[in-house]
Design a protein that fits this description.
It comes from Hevea brasiliensis. InterPro entries: TOD1_MUCI70, TOD1_MUCI70_glycTrfase_dom. This is TOD1/MUCI70 glycosyltransferase-like domain-containing protein. There is one protein chain. This protein has 16 helices and five strands. It is α/β, with parallel strands linked by helices. It folds into three domains: 127 residues, no CATH class; 127 residues, no CATH class; 58 residues, no CATH class. It has a five-stranded mixed β-sheet with strand order 3-4-2-1-5, with helices on both faces. Strand 3 and strand 4 form a beta hairpin. Helix 2 crosses helix 5 and helix 5 packs parallel to helix 7.
Length: 328
C-alpha cells in the first residue's frame, strides 16, 4: 500500500463507515484491544488494519488502553531498528493522545518533528495539539450545549458579519463564536468594536475568542482550518455545530438550517454547494492560479494522490445535492 493511499481520503471514508458499523457491534468494540495486540505482533504490520483497530478503541472510550499498547509498540520498533514502523505507530499514538486530551504529551512525540517526511497528518496533529484557546474561554465553549455556530478571522482578512433573520428564541439555544488572532483583535479595538480592557469580547451576537499566537501558522488559511476541523472537540457538549466562513453571512436561522438539512433528513452532516465549482480539480486549479497556496508542487502531489485513490473527472451524472435554500 502506498503512503498516499494510507493517508488519503479513501481511508478516511472507510474509517467513517467502520465507525457506524462498529457502533452497532459491541463485540467488535470489545475485541479491539486483542485485535490491536495481534496486529502489532505481525512481522509487517498492516497499518490500515491498525488504524481501524485503534479507531475502535477510541469509539469504545479506551483511549488510555490504546496509548499504553502503542507506546510499548513504538519502543519495540525502535529497539528493532524499524524506523518506518516506529513512525507510523507513533502517529497512531499521537492521534490517541489527542483524543485523550493529553496535548502536551502528543506534541513531544518524535514523529511530529520529522519535517523531512511529507505527511499531511503532521501539521494537522500539531494544530490539534496546540493550546488553541485560553482556559477562561474554554469553559465558555464547553458550556455551549445547544447549537454552536463557529467562524474565524486571522490576520484581519475579513470582517465580522452579523447573522440575519434570527428567531426570538434562537439566542437561547444557539452560541455564536468567532476565533481571532491578536492582529484581528487589535483592529477590532482600533475601530472601537471592543474594549481591550475587558477579558471577554463580543461583537453583536458573536462571542470573540482570542487564539494564542504562539504556535500559529504564517498562512492565515492554515490557521482557519484548525477550528474548522476541531469544532466537535472545542465544543464537546454542543448537540449540533455549524461552520461558516468569515467571508459569508448567515442568512437563515441556524435552528431552521439544522432542522431542514440535518434533523428532518436524518443525516449526520450537510455541506453547502460551492457557488462556482463542481469538481475538486477546479478548486485546485483556482488555488494554484491565484496563489492561495504557495507550494504548487505539494498541491499537484495532493491532487495526484486523490486521482490514484479513485478521484474521477466530473460528469453531469455527478450532480451536486441541492440545499433547497438559495440564500443559505
Amino acid at each position: 500500500m502506498s503512503m498516499g493511499a494510507l493517508h488519503g481520503g479513501k481511508l478516511a471514508m472507510e474509517r467513517l463507515t467502520d465507525y457506524h458499523q462498529a457502533r452497532a457491534d459491541a463485540a467488535s468494540l470489545n475485541a479491539a484491544e486483542s485485535e490491536l495486540k495481534v496486529l502489532l505482533e505481525e512481522e509487517q504490520p498492516d497499518f490500515k488494519k491498525l488504524q481501524s483497530a485503534v479507531a475502535k478503541l477510541e469509539m469504545s472510550g479506551k483511549e488510555a488502553v490504546a496509548v499504553g499498547i502503542l507506546e510499548s509498540a513504538v519502543k519495540k520498533a525502535r529497539m528493532e531498528e524499524k524506523p518506518q514502523e516506529a513512525y507510523e505507530i507513533e502517529m497512531l499514538l499521537v492521534e490517541m493522545l489527542i483524543y485523550k486530551g493529553d496535548y502536551d504529551k502528543a506534541l513531544k512525540c518524535e514523529c511530529l518533528s520529522h519535517e523531512e517526511i511529507s505527511d499531511a497528518r503532521r501539521p494537522l496533529y500539531k494544530g490539534f495539539s496546540l493550546s488553541f484557546v485560553y482556559n477562561s474561554d474554554r469553559m465558555t465553549m464547553e458550556s455551549c450545549n445547544g447549537v454552536a455556530v463557529v467562524s474565524a478571522i486571522f490576520n484581519n482578512h475579513d470582517k465580522i458579519r452579523q447573522p440575519k433573520t434570527l428567531g426570538s428564541k434562537t439566542l437561547d439555544n444557539v452560541c455564536f463564536f468567532m476565533f481571532v488572532d491578536d492582529i484581528t483583535l487589535k483592529e477590532l479595538n482600533h475601530h472601537q468594536l471592543i474594549s481591550r480592557e475587558s477579558f471577554q469580547y463580543s461583537v453583536g451576537v458573536w462571542r470573540i475568542l482570542k487564539v494564542s499566537s504562539t504556535h500559529l501558522y504564517e498562512n492565515p488559511a492554515m490557521n482557519g482550518v484548525i477550528p474548522k476541523y476541531l469544532v466537535h472537540r472545542l465544543f464537546p457538549n454542543s448537540k449540533f455545530s455549524i461552520w461558516i466562513d468569515a467571508k459569508l453571512q448567515l442568512m437563515v436561522d441556524p435552528l431552521l438550517l439544522i432542522h431542514t438539512l440535518v434533523v428532518s433528513k436524518k443525516v449526520d452532516m450537510a455541506i453547502s454547494k460551492h457557488p462556482y465549482f463542481t469538481h475538486t480539480m477546479e478548486e485546485a486549479l483556482a488555488t494554484a492560479r491565484w496563489r492561495k497556496w504557495w507550494d504548487i508542487d505539494a498541491l499537484r502531489l495532493q491532487m495526484e494522490t486523490y486521482c490514484e485513490n479513485g478521484l474521477e473527472p466530473w460528469t453531469p451524472t455527478k450532480l451536486p445535492y441541492p440545499s433547497g435554500k438559495q440564500d443559505s
